[in-house]
Give the backbone structure.
Amino acid sequence: MLVLGVESSCDETSVAIVRDGKEVLANVINSQIKIHELFGGVVPEVASRQHVYQITLVFEEAFKVAGVKPEDIDLVAVTEGPGLIGSLLVGVNAAKTFAMMYDKPLIGVHHLAGHIYANAIEHEMHFPCIALLVSGGNTELIYMKEHFSFEIIGETLDDAVGEAYDKVARVVGLPYPGGPHVDRLAHEGSDTYHLPRVYLEDGSYNFSFSGLKSAVINLAHNAHQRGEEIKPKDLCASFQASVTEVLVRKTLNLAREKGCKDIIVAGGVSANKGLKERFMNEGKDFNICIPSIRYCTDNAAMIAAAGYYQFKKNPTLSDLTLNADSSLELLSK
Ligand code: KG4
């Protein structure tokens, strides 16, 4: 089954063509990072306009790279939410137009299901499993007893982990998006600031990152007022140590409680080297599955893969009334 995936929920315009949820024939991504970097974050209006400029070019490029014709597509899968409404609308309308022009079945996919199924491209998924979803907008611990069954056990009560990375990066003077820069500096420094491990011992599976973020901001502010230098590498290493310890401990605790051997890590922050290292060191008794970097951040191959498994589980199609939903809930199919 040849699935066309379309993703435009934030600042990446992406179109992919994937066979049977595994064989990626094309995964074209036009990133707007250079544009939003000037503003220190994503500007929604600028993002939607940029998607409008790029979407047809990215469609054309995907078919060129894959070497297939529009007539060959069996299913069109598009991110219907959550995300920036103006951005989502561009992808949804492009996918609907394509489906109508070529008379192809259409399916709406949840963005977070896309991140989870990025793992299915390169690995077999085994159930039951725990998915740790860590991105710029989400931090969730999800129990999956089978394909497309999502039980959210824990989530952040305030900031998402990627958001905290981006804010800490700004304090340290690093460009947007800050996660990869903080990760790089963290590997050159040491955990000398001993930041709090929020909710580590509370027995719940929820997270909180705003207190940790404020601790970093206060530390930098107080040092500045006293005329002292902060050490950016050590501050990044300390922040990363706190974040990864809480994420990994809670995920492993939940996997033990639920009797799961398999753990999936998904979302942009799954590209973090410190997180990967800690999972590998502390999770030796588990099968830990993390996608390759190119499938960690937003891309349409993961949407095509998710669309394929969603259709196999529940072949209910969307019609041309499919609409973008900026706060779409992650529901089992
Ligand atoms: O999943 P994603 O591409 O977009 C959504 O939020 O859906 O995630 C983007 C987030 C940003 O906050 C970025 O700073 C973070 O992922 N990120 C990282 C790393 N690479 C990307 N955070 C920590 N370490 C990284 N290596």
Observations:
- The chain has eleven helices and ten strands.
- Residues 280 and 288 are 7 Å apart (CA to CA).
- The longest strand covers residues 23-31.
- The two ends are 20 Å apart (CA to CA).
